[in-house]
Amino acid sequence: MPVTPPTAAIAPESATTALYRAAIGPVNTAHYLALFARFNDAGRAGPAWNGAAGFLTLNWLVFRQLWIAALGYVACAEGLSLLVLGVGRRLLQWPAAVEWGVLGALLVLSIAIPGAYGNAWLHAETRRRITRAVREARTVREACAALERQASTPRRLWGLVVINGVLVVALIGGYVAWSVVLAGRGAAVGSINTPPPAPRPAPQVATAAVPAAVSTTEPEIKPVPVPAAAPAPVAGPAKEASPVSPSAAPAMQRMPQAAPAPQPVLAPASTAAAAPPVAPPSAGFAINVGLFADPANAGKAHARLIEAGLPAFTQTVTMAKGPRVRVRVGPFATGPEAEAAAERVRALRLEAQVFPLP
After folding, report:
1. Residue 193, helix vs strand vs coil
2. Which chain regions cross the lipid bilayer (predicted)?
3. Rg of the chain on CA atoms, in Å
4. What are the beta bridge partners of residue 349?
5. What is the DSSP letter of 315?
């Protein structure tokens, strides 16, 4: 009767697998072991998508201690951003749409390249660590222990989470503070854009309150002609002594009487001694920087003046060829102040023309 062979003991993992396990660390070990085994079978590390390496590139590189790749990533990101925002904006004068398109393409590349080749970078770095540990250790167990001390741990992962949280809070605080500063600058610019109040007109003396100069020659008053009374008929002595009949009394009362001559009304003569109108005081001086057809260029010039500490403001002017944006600086109380500010404007390589305000 055949004897049933005992259950075969589970074969221990190979030394290569043990070294890879120790070098990878306890985070996502099974995933990377299978991936690295496939790379070793193929004889090369090809592209394979890694979401953490793509969307959290810098954090993933720091967590996996890929320092050279992290420095290269930061250098490329900053260098390309400076080229687009510095050279492209200053020299090439790209439109806003082109600039945003280039920045979007750089963002896509900054996600796609690390996401596709991050696993290959980690595989190459892991092989270098294993080779160095095997050379320095006498046994495989000592090499594994040395690799485990260098491997990424959950403690490192939580440390990165805390650091990212602190950075997010700092960014939010900085954004709020910057918003407050911008709001204050906007209020200051708004007060500058408000036209100064019109100067009060000189007080006019009421005509009725000032006695007009009366002419020394009185106007000639023409006498009103009085109608001559009809001559009374000559009667005898007896009739003259007779009293007036009652019927004749009302008739005599109804006789028109001479109306009194109307008093001439002297019109108030315009006085030559009236005080001349006082000219309103000058509202000050301002600096004309330029008239821009493109609001974006006007905004850039306005921003440069504000950053230089100059009280700049903008005005929209409607012209035959369309609206234009005028950029000015001011107002200033005196001409020397305006000239000094104009020199500061010219130092920014902008035009400056001082003019008095109406």
Report:
1. helix
2. 66-88, 100-122, 157-178
3. 52
4. none
5. E
One-letter amino acid at 218 equals E
What is the structure's pLDDT at 92? 78
pLDDT tens digits, one per residue of 302-328: 999 998 888 999 989 888 888 899 899
pLDDT by residue (tens digit) across 89-130?
778 778 888 889 988 999 999 999 999 999 999 999 999 999
Contact at 8 Å (CB) between 94 and 86? no
Q: b/e string for 213-247 if b means 16 or more Cβ within 10 A?
A: eeeeeeeeeeeeeeeeeeeeeeeeeeeeeeeeeee
Answer whether residue 228 shows pLDDT above 50: no
Instruction: Sketch out the chain's domains with CATH numbers.
Output: 15-152 (no CATH), 285-356 (3.30.70.1070)
Helix, strand and coil percent figures for the chain, each rounded to 5: 55, 10, 40
Give me the torsion for CA of 100, 102, 107, 110, rounded to 10°. -170
Size of the chain, expressed as the number of residues it contains: 358
Cβ-contact 45, 124 below 8 angstroms: yes
**Pair of tokens at residue 334:** 């005196």
Average pLDDT score, the chain: 78
**Coil, helix or strand for 1?**
coil
62 contacts 160 by C-beta, under 8 angstroms? yes
- Contact yes or no for 218/339 (Cβ under 8 A): no
- The pTM of the full predicted model, rounded to 2 decimals, is 0.50
Which long-range contacts (C-beta less than 8 Å, at least 24 apart) are formed by 343-352? 344/308, 344/310, 345/287, 345/289, 345/305, 345/310, 348/304, 348/305, 348/308, 350/289, 350/290, 350/301, 350/304, 350/305, 351/288, 351/289, 351/290, 352/287, 352/288, 352/289
| Helix 67-82 × helix 96-136 angle, to 10° | 160
- The answer, yes or no, to whether residue 63 has pLDDT greater than 80, is yes
What pLDDT does 284 receive?
85
Beta bridge partners of 318: 323
pLDDT tens by residue, 182-209: 888 777 665 565 665 666 655 554 444 4
